[in-house]
Recover the amino acids of this structure.
């Protein structure tokens, strides 16, 4: 086998490979002998089939196997000989081959760069932290109580107002004729909830128990049922009952409704949950600041093939957002050339950070343990109460889905490793500051930056 490097331009390398015909023939003969041991051909015992007959029957398929194996082996040899780590699958082109002749092909590959990693002890970071004050805790408890609000029958002369629940029978008519789905009895509707067609609830304000009303509304132009979209209809409404909200009290009874012993236990549980949320925000901020500093301190060439792949994913998502009217306000009015320049810079940053974190992991033997994956699967399962077993089965049967869980776990472990070495100090901030910063700052992780949302914030990351 002859391997000749024909080009070396930065991370791009090209090779010409020639595999002698004799070597290929030797591999073909060996493979045919292996096939012949188990081949079942009428008139011959396994292992006794003549080579000529084997070649005639199995030659083309064996030739394909041998050529594929030879190309792969030669490509690996070229990479190993020149100490290259391919960034993407090498591009192989067979330039000359026919039976009985040499096999000639070219290999084009972009290699991963050598990454010189800084001393992480030189990093200084501030971690914003906010206190869970009594006011914040009380507000959270009041929200819980509001969510368990009950109602009681209103006095007979009470006129319905926003927040009340009217129990109604209704019949909808289009051009004087009832339409499908426009009828119900004993329907409980909370006024002000905006769950009905716009304008319906407003026309029941002031109604009393026993009242009959005719409600006229226009269905929205984009309503799901074509025969009703944009049409004016009438509803004959009978108010059968009127109920007023009774606010829940933050007390031991509320705690017991939620499965806790008493109010103190409820306060502790709520405070713990808020503190976990705050910790997540704090983590996101310090992680974002860390990645900004890493991007600033590490300059190295990145494989353009990886950047192209990353950029293509971003651009496809942007075009989908534009078609669906969800384009980021910061991008509206900009030319495609300007947008492409900005997002290619973001793609370059993502690839650079990804390669850096991977190299940190490689040099420090950071790996994902099975218990890490198990915890991630359990966390996913908890998002679907009552369907946990289905979630477990899904990940067991779908290796790709399991692999998708690995990337964020891997990144978090690398980030943890770096933060352990960096100098991190806490900075007291208000809740408003803790909540506002994530919206105005670059993405918190290399993986997060692959997501299309909040692009305006991500563009700032490229300016660091």
């Amino acid at each position: 086998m002859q391997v000749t490097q024909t080009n070396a331009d930065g991370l791009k390398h090209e090779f010409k490979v020639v595999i002698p015909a004799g070597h290929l023939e030797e591999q073909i003969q060996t493979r045919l002998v292996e096939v012949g041991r188990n081949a079942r051909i009428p008139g011959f015992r396994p292992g006794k089939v003549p080579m000529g007959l084997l070649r005639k029957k199995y030659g083309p398929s064996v030739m394909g196997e041998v050529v594929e194996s030879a190309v792969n082996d030669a490509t690996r040899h070229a990479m190993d000989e020149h100490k290259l780590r391919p960034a993407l699958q090498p591009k192989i082109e067979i330039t000359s081959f026919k039976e009985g002749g040499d096999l000639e092909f070219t290999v084009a590959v972009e290699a991963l760069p050598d990454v010189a990693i800084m001393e992480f002890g030189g990093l200084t970071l501030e971690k914003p932290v906010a206190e869970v004050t009594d006011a914040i805790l009380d507000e959270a408890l009041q929200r819980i109580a509001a969510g368990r609000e009950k109602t009681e029958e209103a006095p007979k002369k009470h006129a319905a107002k926003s927040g009340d629940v009217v129990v109604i029978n209704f019949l909808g008519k289009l051009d004087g004729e009832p339409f499908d789905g426009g009828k119900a009895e004993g329907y409980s509707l909370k006024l002000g909830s905006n769950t009905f067609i716009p304008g319906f609830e407003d026309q029941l304000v002031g109604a009393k128990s026993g009242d009959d009303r005719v409600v006229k509304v226009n269905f929205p132009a984009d309503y799901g049922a074509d025969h009703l979209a944009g049409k004016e209809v009438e509803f004959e409404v009978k108010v059968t009952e009127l109920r007023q909200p009774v606010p829940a009290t933050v007390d031991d009874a509320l705690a017991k409704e939620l499965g806790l012993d008493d109010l103190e236990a409820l306060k502790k549980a709520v405070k713990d949950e808020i503190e976990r949320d705050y910790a997540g925000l704090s983590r996101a901020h310090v992680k974002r600041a860390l990645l900004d500093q890493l991007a600033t301190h590490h300059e190295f060439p990145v494989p353009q093939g990886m950047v192209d792949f990353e950029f293509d994913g971003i651009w496809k998502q942007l075009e989908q957002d534009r078609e669906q009217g969800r384009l980021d306000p910061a991008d509206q009015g900009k030319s495609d050339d300007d947008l492409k320049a900005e997002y290619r810079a973001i793609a370059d940053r993502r690839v650079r950070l990804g390669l850096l974190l991977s190299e940190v992991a490689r040099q420090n033997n950071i790996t994902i343990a099975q218990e890490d994956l198990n915890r991630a699967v359990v966390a996913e399962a908890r998002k679907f109460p009552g369907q946990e077993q289905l979630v477990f089965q899904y990940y067991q049967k779908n290796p790709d889905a399991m692999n998708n869980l690995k990337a964020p776990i891997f990144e978090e472990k690398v980030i943890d490793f770096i933060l352990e070495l960096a100098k991190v100090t806490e900075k007291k901030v208000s809740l408003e500051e803790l909540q506002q910063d994530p919206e105005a700052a670059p993405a918190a992780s290399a993986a997060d930056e692959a997501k299309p949302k909040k692009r305006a914030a991500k563009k700032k990351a490229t300016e660091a």
Observations:
- The longest strand covers residues 232-246.
- The CA atoms of residues 46 and 438 lie 70 Å apart.
